[in-house]
Design brief:
This protein is α/β, with parallel strands linked by helices. It contains 16 helices and eleven strands. It has a single domain, classed as TIM Barrel (Alpha-Beta Barrel), CATH 3.20.20.30.
């Protein structure tokens, strides 16, 4: 198993009551609630936590993209990744991910990732997403074009990375007389592509196609849904004529480690409940704008995922449905090993900074996880797999 540190860069000092008043931490929450005098300190802290993860031995450090929200202060994750290329040396830098339908120039995305791959010495993992429903309100992009723009942008970026230029590209949404990127990426034929998803059937089948075999990451889901989607991926792979490897499946989970189970529960409770009940809060119509997903996927997400989020969550209900793991190092280690055996994923994306959590708690959790949990997760692998990963 590979273990990754994921950071959302939330605005920790946010007024939680104001989020409830405006019924959203996204798009409509007034930016007057952001204190510019605190921003530099917040970015320095969060970049420092990503740098610490590199020193602690995580396989990758992960950033992502969201717009107009207190949930995450990373509208341009490539900027954070660029800073990390200079201050980290070992971990991969995973951008999970860039929202392709929101951009009007996919060639620029290909250039950015190629630059980052060169600057990092070939350590970039590219994450391509469609962006959640709120992003279409924030950017003014027609959600009915989400799938078409995503697939076309993806195809153009891969061509820009792998074809000799200059060449012409004329599609439905993007048109270029010259595609000829300088520089080209270090990793050939291109950096690895991962696809975080809420679990749409279309995305799972597209990732599993034999010409792609992309790593599929399940995010913010009850454990039964994550397990079902992993099996759907494996089934889709069999239909394509191959058996999916564990390295093609990743699970993202908020995680907190403390000295004892009791301390972990006490320290985490206000932050995990604020995260799910406030920072993840926005009107239902912004979750799935018309045309964003197929009818079948929309029905599945409403019934099995968003129905959970619509309820007021406690740390107990979140633990019961498998949307958070916390406790002593021993407890967290045993739970993760059990989940790995049960679900068969090869990548654990540990979300060790959770919402409004103070720096000292994040630091403690990261260090305990790295020293007392991560070695056991890796030791659980077959010897051949560990040797391959080391190579």
């Amino acid at each position: 198993m590979q273990v990754h540190f994921f950071h959302l860069m939330p605005y920790g000092p946010v007024d939680l009551d104001a989020i409830a008043k405006h019924n959203s931490a996204w798009v409509t929450l007034p930016n007057s609630l952001f204190d510019p005098s605190k921003g530099t300190e917040i970015y320095n802290r969060y970049i420092g936590e990503l740098e610490l993860a590199d020193k602690l031995g995580f396989d990758s450090i992960c950033v992502n993209e969201h717009h107009q929200t207190a949930y995450g202060l990373m509208p341009a994750p490539n900027l954070i990744a660029a800073a990390l290329t200079r201050t980290t040396s070992r971990a991969k830098i995973a951008i999970l991910g860039r929202a392709l339908p929101l951009v009007n120039n996919p060639v620029a995305i290909a250039e950015e990732f190629a630059m980052l791959d060169q600057m990092s010495g070939g350590r970039i993992i590219t994450g391509f997403v469609r962006g959640i429903g709120t992003e279409y309100f924030a950017t003014g992009i027609d959600p009915t074009l989400s799938h078409a723009r995503y697939y076309e942008a993806h195809d153009l970026i891969l061509q820009a990375w792998t074809r000799e230029g200059p060449f012409k590209y004329h599609g439905r949404h993007y048109n270029f007389d010259y595609v000829n990127i300088w520089p080209r990426p270090v990793q050939q034929p291109h950096p690895p592509v991962w696809v975080p998803s809420q679990g749409s059937r279309e995305t799972i089948e597209w990732c599993a196609a034999k010409e792609r075999k992309y790593t599929y990451l399940q995010t913010f889901s009850p454990i039964h849904l994550a397990q079902r989607n992993f099996e759907s991926y494996r089934e889709a792979a069999r239909k394509e004529g191959y058996e999916a490897d564990a390295s093609q499946l990743g699970w993202a989970i908020p995680t907190y480690v403390a000295e004892t189970d009791e301390i972990a529960r006490r320290e985490l409770t206000p932050h995990i409940e604020a995260f799910f009940n406030r920072l993840l809060r926005f009107p239902f119509e912004m979750r799935l704008p018309p045309g964003y997903s197929s009818i079948a996927s929309t029905k599945m997400l409403i019934e099995q995922k968003f129905a959970v989020r619509a309820q007021q969550q406690t740390i107990d209900t979140l633990e019961e449905i498998g949307m958070v793991i916390f406790g002593s190092a021993k407890t967290v280690r045993e739970k993760l090993l059990e989940r790995k055996k049960q679900m068969g994923f090869g990548h654990l994306i540990a979300m060790l900074q959770i919402g409004t959590q103070p720096a000292e708690q994040t630091d403690k959790s990261m260090r305990l996880f790295a020293s007392e949990i991560m070695p056991h997760l890796r030791a659980d692998e077959p010897l051949a797999a560990r040797a391959s990963a080391a190579e």
